[in-house]
Amino acid sequence: MSTTGRISVTAENIFPIIKKFLYSDHEIFLRELISNAVDATTKLKTLASIGEFKGELGDLTIQVKIDSNKKTITISDRGVGMTADEIRRYINEVAFSGAEEFVNKYKDKAGDAGIIGHFGLGFYSAFMVADKVEIYTKSWTQSPEEEGTHWECTGSPDFVMKPTPRTDRGTDIVLHISDDSTEFLEDYRIRDLLKKYCRFLPVPIQFGTKEITEKDEKGKEVKKTVPDIVNNPNPAWIKKPADLTHEDYMAFYRELYPLTFEEPLFYIHLNVDYPFNLTGILYFPRIKPMMEPTRNKIQLYQNQVFVTDSLEGVVPEFLTLLHGVIDSRDIPLNVSRSYLQSDANVKKISAHITKKVADKLEEMFKNNRADFEQKWNDVKIFIEYGMLSEEKFYERARKFALFPTTEGKYYTLDELRKNLMDIHTDKDGQLVLLYTSDKEAQHSYIQKANNAGYTVLVLDSPLTSHLINRLEYSQDEKLRFARVDAGPLDQLIPKKDSAKLSILSQKQKDDLRDIVAKAVDKEKFSVRVEDLSSSDEPIIITQPEFMRRMKEMNMMSGGFYGSGNLPESYDLIVNANHPIAQRILDTTDTDKRQQLIQHCTELAMLHQNLLKGEALSNFIHRSIQMLSQQ
How far is 136 from 116, CA to CA, in rounded Å? Predict the structure, then answer.
């Protein structure tokens, strides 16, 4: 007997709302419908496990088929199916969730049974891409002789429901694709969506067939056509860590990122049942110091259904540099499962992940420091980023964050304080840590510092300026960082009673400053005369530590610090105790004096990699001429 009726909705325009606004992306219709099929299958398996269903489960594979001629997509399952009454309850009454009712009914016997759906609106996502949807279904509770039910709707509140011949339990959903959504009739498009949203669903999903090569009994290779199962129902993260080998973790990493050829450095297996549910595997990729790290590589799942790879709010920002999978049914989602909502559970999960990461790093540092030191260049960006962005991680990371030296040794901050306090303390009792950002470019400065007994750190990551600022302002004791080429050593680490005797009188130094200032670019150089060692260069060019840091931080933060438009300015230090200083004063020939100052200045600029282009070409040409005249 045919039945007509009207879907029970609270607004006449419910379908336009669903089609345009309820879901952020139309492509998720496939995820929602297959999730429903998985729920139906999971319910049947649950009923069988508790003795309610006593029949044969048989093949439970979900089928996805395209008929481009009829312009249809069909999703079929052999799950619990529905009676006509259940269609009235779960389909005709919008937002009545059969999944939620099932969980509530059987939770004492089977927990939540891994049921995905909760909102009861997933089915209606079909109308985002279809102008007509049909359901052919039969419940597991019906006898073989009973008919199934056919339901049909064209995207309006009106529907038609009638009996239909059907022998087997389960449900077929047939979408008649609308003219503006025909892209979903392409095999490659559906395959991509299945790979994106359904690759780890817990029930096998078949999409067409594929040809494989096998060996027969005689060892001869033969081709065979088999069902193409597009998902892995048993991914590594749902298994116990004790059941997995290192090779299993690496194989899963390659499954997640087939185009990544480098293996991760190490991994963390998350497995928490209380006070929240959280499983997953996080991998630490190799992050090169001068490369832009790739974000959005962690995939969020809920009961093995892909939700998003944009995890802002679920994990701290620095952890978005990691790769892997997080699965939790305790992360609340809005109705479309497309955006995360911040609540107490999310914050607890985020804090737990941060703690597990810090635990892993500290464990590696303590158990095998030599190996940790070898990995340092690959993980330092990640750790430094965490120290800058997460206070709790900063406190933990102080124990294992390393500071390499130019001599290839590695120290923690506490070890540096203990080992270097005596020689690296300035006249004010402040520990001064010298560092280089480029061992090759700053080689001569490093050599001078080493010859004077100082240790030079290698801090060459893009985050160096931010990190040393953070460390300087966060220490209880006095601490200062100075780049090794930021000035003469006596000024970088001034000592008590370190004043040097001056060969020149004060008047001569004043005259020398005025002469040099007239000969150089006043907008670029601030000239001063210092009593340095006679072994130091006649002219030294430095950039104030503060200004250089501001510019470096500005480059990293996209202009946030407001120093992007500041002109380049440097300190030009004339060594009053160098013999050339006296020559500049004694030379009466203005042209020769100008040439002497220019040559010494350009040598200093060359030392700081500031001499480029035409100026460098002219310097080389003039130097060759000077050598030829000798």
Answer: 22
The pLDDT of 46-55, averaged and rounded, is 91
Q: To the nearest 10°, report the CA torsion of 62, 67, 73, 79.
A: -30
The verdict on whether residue 36 carries a ligand-binding annotation is yes
Q: Known binder of ligand: residue 247? A: no
* Percentage of the chain modeled with pLDDT above 70: 85
User: What distance in Å separates the CA atoms of residue 630 and residue 627, rounded to the nearest whole number?
Assistant: 5
Cβ burial of 145 (10 Å; 0-12, 13-18, 19+) is exposed
DSSP state of 93: B
SS3 assignment, position 321: helix
CATH architecture classification, 3-208:
2-Layer Sandwich (3.30)
Question: What are the boundaries of each domain within the chain?
Answer: 3-208, 236-372, 402-492, 506-546+563-629
Give the CA count within 13 Å in the CB-facing half-sphere of 62.
32
Q: Which residues contact 143 (CB under 8 A, 6 or more apart)?
A: none
- Does domain 236-372 match CATH 3.30.230.80? yes
The verdict on whether residue 1 carries a ligand-binding annotation is no
For residue 622, say whether it is annotated as part of any ligand binding site.
no
Scan for tokens 């931080």, then name that residue: 553
Confidence check: pLDDT of 157 > 60? yes
The neighbour count for residue 121, using CB atoms within 10 Å, is 19
Identify any residues that bridge with 305 across adjacent strands, giving them in sequence order.
302
pLDDT at 95 over 80: no
Q: Are 144 and 167 in contact (CB under 8 A)?
A: yes
* CA atoms of 90 and 99, how far apart (whole Å): 9
Name the nearest CA neighbour of 286 among 382, 217, 422, 413: 382
Residues in the chain: 630
Residue 32 marked ligand-binding: yes
Bond before 275 cis per omega within 30 degrees: yes
Q: What is the rounded distance in angstroms from the CA atom of residue 549 to the CA atom of residue 580?
A: 32
Q: Does domain 506-546+563-629 have CATH number 1.20.120.790?
A: yes
Q: Has 98 been labeled as part of a binding site?
A: yes
Element (H, E) at 383: helix 369-389
pLDDT tens sequence across 447-502: 999 999 999 999 998 888 889 988 988 766 689 999 998 888 888 898 877 667 88
pLDDT of residue 96: 45
Is there a binding annotation on residue 77? yes
Domain 402-492 in CATH 3.40.1130.10? The answer is no
Cβ-contact 398, 447 below 8 angstroms: no
Q: Which residue shows structure tokens 């490369």? A: 291
539 bridge partner residues: 574
Q: What is the pLDDT of residue 235?
A: 96
Q: Which two tokens stand for residue 435?
A: 């560092």
Give Dmax (Cα) for the chain.
119
* Residues linked to residue 152 through DSSP beta bridges, in sequence order: 134, 160
Is pLDDT at 104 greater than 60 in this prediction?
Answer: no
**AA letter at 197:** Y
Give the integer Cα–Cα distance in Å for 415 and 325: 36
Predicted confidence band of residue 228 (pLDDT cuts 50, 70, 90)? very high
pLDDT band at residue 137 under the 50/70/90 scheme: very high
Q: Check if the beta carbon of residue 462 is closer than 8 Å to that of residue 381.
A: yes
pLDDT for the residue numbered 156: 79
Query: Annotated binding residue at 417?
Result: no
* Cβ neighbours, 10 Å, residue 257: 17
